[in-house]
């Protein structure tokens, strides 16, 4: 495991007692999932659900937390009644809110689930524990990775770190419909989504692609280009991703598997399946785990990695909890399910 | 278009008046779909549904045709009351039946939907009209292609014929659950299939792979190896396939698209989507059409082709009808829907 | 069969050669289904798709028909280039358009799929052929029944006509999601509709209830009140309806079944299932047929009727075609599928 | 609340420290759900998963518990290493096993999820806490109610206890596919279950019906007959049930609602929805709660109750946990989720 992915004595934080959390964007799928997981987390207390003036509908699932205007939320932060902010807002919104509500921007700990700070802007650390655990443990600002990028990065990291990759990587990935967000679209209505699968914006220009390439470059100083074909299939949750990686030298499948096994041996939320087994999203449903299978094709010239995870858990809200656990010196598994609920 | 894919004066058959068809394996998904399509076909008359002694349940959807033991079916063929046989049986069964019922093996026209004769055994012609139209038009024995192989072959043919392919091809494909056949399995029960996607037997050893490689070799005398990752997603019908093809020379996306457009310009059941559009299975539902999108990735070094079709129509029963139309000199579109029913 | 449901010599219309049809509201689910069925109808030619100025999106599935403003459509009607109008618009819209575009209101034949004229307003005949066949055959204006009301009326008609009903009728009905229409709602998004069922607006105040009560009153001069519990389940098409009917006198199940059998013996699109068989929506999918099962409960004191149909076919577009066939003196089954496509 | 449903000082058990549980039938849907819930229950330790000799497949989800033959399980019970037995076996099996393995039959505490002892045979108490809480608290043998019967009983109990019911009750209920159990059937395969709904064995002869009638008779000494129409819809979990109840005297909807509200005011797992709100299964998904709505129809002459619950939780494994909590003097909510996971 790379140094960055392992906590050393120096990184270990004195454990915070507990955190009073304000959630922005709690009505979206990721926001709802965060509230659900936070309810089972002994150290997180949801204090307020921030609501933009233009959001007319009250947030669901508030429990004892009450909806709160952004102005009032700033007052809470100012008074120390709220010390952590988790933004589940769509891309571009939190950045704008932070500008208009400086008190909010001063919240001691912030995790942003949008793509706004994933390039490290404004000092945000990229929140993929398997690559940047020690940095996250020292950070007060974390940008939570995207769901596609989490799956792709976990699929490619060991190969990239080993210097195996000889050329452009090709990725085909399918996602459940919740990956498209909760804004109403004809495309994601039941009648038009059920019973069919579709590809969209295939190519190399995706934000997802840049996010993966950036992570691999940071970790390995090599930058494979990535081609990406996202597809939506009629299920609520889950990502199933296939990566084809051209190798510098032919590799036996057992060796490829051993390298991956060693790399993730201490990772609580990455599991390498046995040879001959292939991932299914169902085995990761409502779990924070990512399942991986590895082999080689074409006489060992191509590495094949297949990955499955729950886009709302390891791909969003669960990873945010994992990051909060690291930032606060709590055991990394606090409040985080490993078991899936397959049906 | 290659010569083989175009009918010349010499190939054109004198049109048969009509055909009296026996169907074997009519209770499976492909068999049921064949009966459905045959009911709307003016020239096909379903005469008998052949039943193996061990198949206790009577076939559904028989309409006016009556179930018939294999022995009695042989008598019908002998008497000329039945001149065409369509086998929708699982792999390995028809071959065995033909051995034990020689009268059946003498049926004037035979289309076998299983994989048994796709390697050309016993003089069967491989029934992919886009590659072998003139041979099919002269054949009395046709091996109907598999659903995955149909999608992959249509995605790769123009590239292979153009001599563009420089190395191993990587294919990721997702299929609806009917692709797994009608035999009962826990994996394809509603509770265990709904809400999840899974990969299986990824690699290069699939029968599908050999089928595609054989077709490309026959047509182009070059033999790219193909790596294949099949996945099942919770929908009834449809295949969505992504092929990544390494190119000998960098290619502009427009040129790639133009070549595909030209190759399939006269094909009634292949449609190239506009640039920026990507296939959806829903647009091919209950249609015999295959939709394709083409572009290049990685600075033009990789060709990306995405294909969608209905595995029970263009991937099975519809293609069988298309082959029967060619074998009998009927207009190729007889009884074959082009329009889809998206929901 | 009642007189009204049977065509006599007097009702029979001289068959029209063919009809040039304008469709309003062709982008909704019922509109799309009407276009799909009309393409397979030898006598219907879709001439224009009327578009309101505020409808920015072009209609899908137009085929050779072109989108056309309402003003231009009026010109077409005026010029005799269009002689039939089918409105698949939501409730309340066509009525308003007719007022603002008098030329359209003068179209020789009009079928309105909305609820606007189901009470007989402006001389519209209620288009349930099983109850009002002869009136429909003489009509130029037909109000197409709602999907729930079609199922409920077919379930209750024989009992009502027989004078069996002694008190209020209780109906529980489940519908596929397309029954909610194509307007975007959170409730009918894939993520929020898949995997769950819900009841809504249960009671006696539904427009559906009034529609059924009106039909029964017209036909039988008795007016049972109807309590109605609509439910939505995660499937695209289909209605499955259960009616509990208190009986004046205890009735043996065989007698109940015989009466229903006799009543619908000549109806091409109503099928009574064998004793012990119960309806499934799948057996009516894409078919214009309604399946019924009948028995008695509670010592014969309660009649139980279960009905299944496809809400987009017999519950909407198919019934509209059936009505057009009657209005034009064509065979009633022209262009109307009896066979279902179960998957 | 009736006395039987409230714990008095006399009923309260001294709380057991914890229980070592053997599970039979752990591979079925109810068994898997029981294991999932038990993992989150502080007082239940799964000690062994009993396996019949003829069950070749090892149980899934065993966690640290190991599969164990019935003979070895008897030894464990004999040695006191296992003091609680939960049977999730299909109907008829546990009864037979108990006869052949007397040691197992002597396990101190037994909960049977099958229908075998729901009639009180062999001293089993019927485990519906809302009706028989004090009896359950003193019992060592509990027969867990069926899912349909739980929903129907909770829907009818207050009306029956109030002496309101004047005649036969009519119930229409829809269930997710897991209600049909895990044995393989064509009917519950994905391709044949998705996209359609079906009714089956409608009438009064169901085991469900007898179970509900027995409960109402025991509690109220009146015995309404119940007509029942079960239906399956394409979702994994959930029951949505509609009951029409003829009333002795017309009743205002508010009064009906108040009576239900009062009856269930102290019940932790029954919730009465606000007027105008109707149950959705999704709001009870993975929760032990049953949601109810109540109103009157037909001028107050008919009571309408709609109920929703998760058939695998309140309808099976969750209710078993609730019963174990009562039998052991633990807080009734131990390890039992109230919150649902709607998607």
Summarize the entry for a quick read.
Four copies of one chain form a homotetramer. Helix content of chain A is 29%, strand content 22%.
Characterise this structure.
Chain A is globular, with a radius of gyration of 20 Å. Chain A has 343 residues and is of the alpha/beta class. In chain A, 29% of the residues lie in helices and 22% in strands. In chain A, α5 packs parallel to α10 (313-327) and α6 packs parallel to α8 (207-220). The first copy, chain A, has helices spanning 29-39, 70-78, 93-100, 102-105, 129-137, 147-161, 190-193, 207-220, 253-264, 313-327; strands at residues 19-24, 44-51, 66-69, 84-87, 109-112, 125-126, 141-143, 169-175, 198-199, 226-232, 239-246, 270-272, 290-297, 302-309. A seven-stranded parallel sheet of chain A has the order 3-2-1-4-5-7-6. A seven-stranded mixed sheet of chain A has the order 9-10-8-11-14-13-12. Chain A contains ten helices and 14 strands. Chain A starts with 18 loop residues before the first strand and ends in a 16-residue tail after the last helix. Chain A has two domains: 3-145 and 315-327, Rossmann fold, CATH 3.40.50.720; 147-311, Dihydrodipicolinate Reductase, domain 2 (2-Layer Sandwich), CATH 3.30.360.
């Amino acid at each position: 495991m790379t140094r960055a992915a392992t906590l050393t004595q120096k990184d270990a934080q004195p454990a915070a007692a507990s955190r009073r959390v304000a959630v922005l964007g709690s009505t979206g799928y990721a926001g709802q999932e965060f509230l659900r997981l936070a309810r089972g987390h002994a150290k997180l207390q949801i204090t307020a659900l921030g609501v933009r003036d233009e959001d007319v509908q009250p947030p669901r699932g508030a429990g004892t937390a009450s909806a709160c205007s952004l102005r009032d939320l700033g007052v809470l932060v100012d008074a120390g009644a709220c010390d952590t902010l988790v933004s589940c807002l769509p891309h571009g919104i939190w950045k704008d809110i932070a500008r208009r509500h400086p008190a909010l921007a001063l919240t001691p700990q912030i995790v942003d689930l949008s793509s706004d700070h994933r390039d490290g802007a404004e000092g945000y650390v990229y929140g993929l524990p398997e690559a940047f655990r020690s940095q996250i443990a020292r950070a007060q600002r974390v940008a939570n990775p995207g769901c596609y990028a989490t799956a792709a990065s976990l699929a490619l990291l060991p190969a990239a770190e080993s210097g195996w990759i000889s050329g452009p990587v090709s990725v085909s990935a399918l996602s459940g419909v919740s990956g498209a967000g909760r804004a109403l679209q004809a495309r994601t209505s039941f009648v038009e989504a059920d019973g069919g699968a579709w590809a969209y914006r295939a190519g190399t220009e995706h934000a997802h692609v840049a996010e993966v390439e950036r992570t691999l470059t940071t970790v390995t100083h090599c930058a494979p280009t990535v081609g990406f074909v996202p597809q939506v299939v009629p299920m609520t949750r889950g990502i199933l991703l296939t990566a084809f990686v051209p190798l510098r030298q032919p590799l036996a499948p057992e060796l490829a598997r051993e390298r991956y096994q060693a790399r993730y041996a201490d990772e609580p939320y990455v599991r390498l399946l046995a040879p001959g087994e292939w991932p299914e999203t169902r085995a990761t449903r409502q779990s924070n785990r990512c399942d991986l299978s590895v082999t080689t094709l074409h006489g060992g010239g191509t590495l094949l990695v297949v990955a499955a995870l729950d886009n709302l858990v390891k791909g969003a809200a669960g990873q945010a909890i994992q990051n909060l656990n690291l930032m606060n010196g709590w055991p990394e598994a606090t409040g985080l399910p490993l078991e899936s609920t397959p049906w």
